[in-house]
Amino acid sequence: MDFSVEYLRLDQLRQLQSERLVNLVDYLGERSEFYKRKFNELGIALRDVRSIEDITKLPITYKQDLRDNYPFGLFTVPKNELQRIHCSSGTTGRPTVVGYTKEDVDLFSEVVARSLNAAGAKPGMQLHNAYGYGIFTGGLGLHYGAEKLGMSVLPISGGMTTRQVDLIMDFKPEVICCSPSYALTIADEFASRGISADEISLKYAVLGSEPWTEIIRHHIEEKLGVHATNIYGLSEIIGPGVSMEDFEEKGGSYIWEDHFYPEILDPVTQKPVPFGEEGVLVITTLTKKAMPLLRYWTNDITSLYYDENSKRTMVKMRPILGRADDMLIVRGVNVYPSQIEEAFSHVKGVVPNYYLTPIEKEQMCVALDIDLEIDDDFVKAQQIDINTDDYSIFVGNFGKNIENEIKKRVGITTKVKIHAQDSLPKCEGGKINRILKKK
Ligand code: DLL
């Protein structure tokens, strides 16, 4: 595969994006009833869009627009030109549906192949694909991308953790992909069988579909003996492979902006924020055919940056803080679960398997209960008999330390309850929900 586009000079990249945006607007002006209406409402003439800088003149597209046009209202090709359809599970309303032409499926495979390459994977390696197959874009997306790169794929899907571990031991894949929370479950299963990292064939883990922080990366890398990197994407845009970390750089992900043009908008004013500041990621699909989207409001909070370690020219995004919907407001302080995760990672001995329960008083969230596991080895190293008062005092202080750390770093009051390692429910595959029902 040719990865040279990742290294285009910035002026060439802007030129390419400009040409693609102009073509896209023409294409939508011809084919999309939805966007034609939007252009008319906003008084946009096609000639107003000449370069990528004109993107801010264009309408923003929201998830609600997909729901209002359910199922195929935003498609710009007839049904017989589709090659694939994916959709969301629809647990929070009408499912959102996305269609792909053959060209779109090729594009999807290409950006996933690029992502796997950045993650360290090479042609000839074997992928243990534990993302869910089905209407979710993770399984098939990674599958086609890995094949495009020249890898072999075991399409195991999520769940049945004991079988996952058996087959990793027997088949010896170099690469695994799944959600980070499921990677933790798999790592725990290895540990419970007494299998150490150097006995596991895996070298690279390609993890995403939910927010995660350095503490989870650290656990997975240590327990599985891998480079763990972050893959981001959403079905409305294409699926996984919108952005990807490089395994030698880590810390942030390149956005494949020759196809997915990013902007960061202020969540309230919906205007662009100064470069580098945090806001909602909004993406324009520059090259998709069956369902191109202009300025799609992902609802994910992040910021963009360049750094001097970057091998490629494309812009990077910081790890997603969370979805705007997952934000909790605790006594007026806005907080995302990932910030809590980051805060408790500063306390030694924490296992990052946790659940948050908002506590309400008069319909206002006033505090958070946190259920959290403590590392077994860390407990053993204290040499305190767990049946004694000394142990309860130790655990009490451990919990207090975490509460203080969260107060200091996030500014909210929490009540931390410590549990033995492996005693809280684990991720059984797929995305985990760390926020429990309000009390
Ligand atoms: O989760 C696609 C995907 C599959 C990405 C496999 C990565 C790996 P959706 O089900 O449409 O698609 O969910 C998209 O998940 O808007 C984010 O809120 C969240 N998300 C996805 N990747 C990440 C990530 C897939 N790396 C929604 N970090 C997105 C944080 C992520 N959040």
TrEMBL record:
User: Looking at the keywords, is Membrane present?
Assistant: no
Q: What CDD domains does the database record attribute to this sequence?
A: PaaK (cd05913)
Superkingdom, taxonomy of origin: Bacteria
Please list the residue ranges annotated as the AMP-dependent synthetase/ligase domain.
85-284
Keywords (alphabetical) are: Ligase, Nucleotide-binding
Instruction: State which Enzyme Commission number(s) the record gives.
Output: 6.2.1.30
Could you tell me one molecular function GO term of this UniProt entry? nucleotide binding
EC class, as a word, reads: ligase
Reactions mediated catalytically = 2-phenylacetate + ATP + CoA = phenylacetyl-CoA + AMP + diphosphate
Question: Which pathway does the UniProt entry assign to this protein?
Answer: Aromatic compound metabolism; phenylacetate degradation
Q: Name one GO biological process term.
A: phenylacetate catabolic process
Q: Does the keyword RNA-binding apply?
A: no
Domain (AMP-dependent ligase C-terminal) spans 332-438
Give the matching InterPro entries.
Adenylate-forming_Reductase, AMP-bd_C_sf, AMP-dep_Lig_C, AMP-dep_synth/lig_dom, ANL_N_sf, PA_CoA_ligase
Function field = Catalyzes the activation of phenylacetic acid (PA) to phenylacetyl-CoA (PA-CoA).
| Quaternary structure note | Monomer.
Concerning its family, UniProt says: Belongs to the phenylacetyl-CoA ligase family.
Under what name is this protein listed?
Answer: Phenylacetate-coenzyme A ligase
